[in-house]
Amino acid sequence: MKIIATATLAFALLIAAPPVLAEGDEVVIESAWSRASIGTSRPGVAYMALINTGDAPVVVSGLRTDLAAMPMIHASTTDAQGVTRMSHMEEVEIAPGETVALEPGGLHVMLMDLQRPMVEGESFTLSLILAGGEEIAAEVPILGIASRGPAD
Ligand SMILES: [Cu+2]
Questions:
Q1: Separation of 29 CA from ligand 1 center, angstroms?
Q2: pLDDT digit string (tens) for 103-150?
Q3: Is residue 125 part of a domain?
C-alpha cells in the first residue's frame, strides 16, 4: 500500500512539472497538403492547420525543409482594386488553444528556391522552428497541381 502511494505521488509530480523541454509537443500540425509544381523555377506552396494545444502562446519563427532552400510563411492580402500581394511573415504567434489556418488566399508556406520538382503522390518533411528553438516536423503530401485541398 505504501509503495503504491509513493508511486502515485511521483507520477503526480511528474505531470505537474513545467514542460520546459516539451514546448514543441504543444503545437500540432494537421491537414497538411501541398501542390505539385512544374519544375523548380517557381516557388511551391503548402497549407496546414497549426494548433496550439498548450496553455501559453507559441511563436513560429521559421521553417526548414530539404525541398526548398528558403521556405517562409507568407500572408496574402487583396486590396480594394483586387490586387493580391504576399508579404513575408517573420513570426506567426498562435494563442493558447487556438488554431492558425494556412489556407489558399491567406497565410501559406511559400517554398522559395525549390531543390527538386514537387511530384504528385510524393511527400516531403517540413519543420516548424519555434522561437525557443524547438522544431516540429510534419509530413506534407503533394496533391495534384490544380488541387484546392485534401477533400478534392
Ligand atoms: Cu507566397
A1: 19
A2: 999 999 999 999 999 999 999 999 999 999 999 999 999 999 999 998
A3: yes
Ion ligand 1 contact residues with beta carbon within 5 A? 74, 86, 110
For residue 43, report the distance from its CA to the centre of ligand 1, in Å.
8
Q: What is the CATH number of the domain that holds 40?
A: 2.60.40.1890
- Exposure string (b/e) for 70-95, b if CB count within 10 Å is 16 or more? ebbbbeeeeeeeeeeeeeebeebebe
What pLDDT, in 10s, does the model give residues 79-107? 999 999 999 999 999 999 999 999 999 99
- CA 125 / ligand 1 centre spacing (Å): 19
Domain total in the chain: 1
**Measured in angstroms, how far is the CA atom of residue 90 from the centroid of ligand 1?**
13
Using DSSP bridges, classify how beta strands 27-35 and 135-143 pair: parallel, antiparallel or unpaired.
parallel
- What is the domain extent for residue 122? 23-143
Q: Which three cell numbers stand for residue 49?
A: 492547420
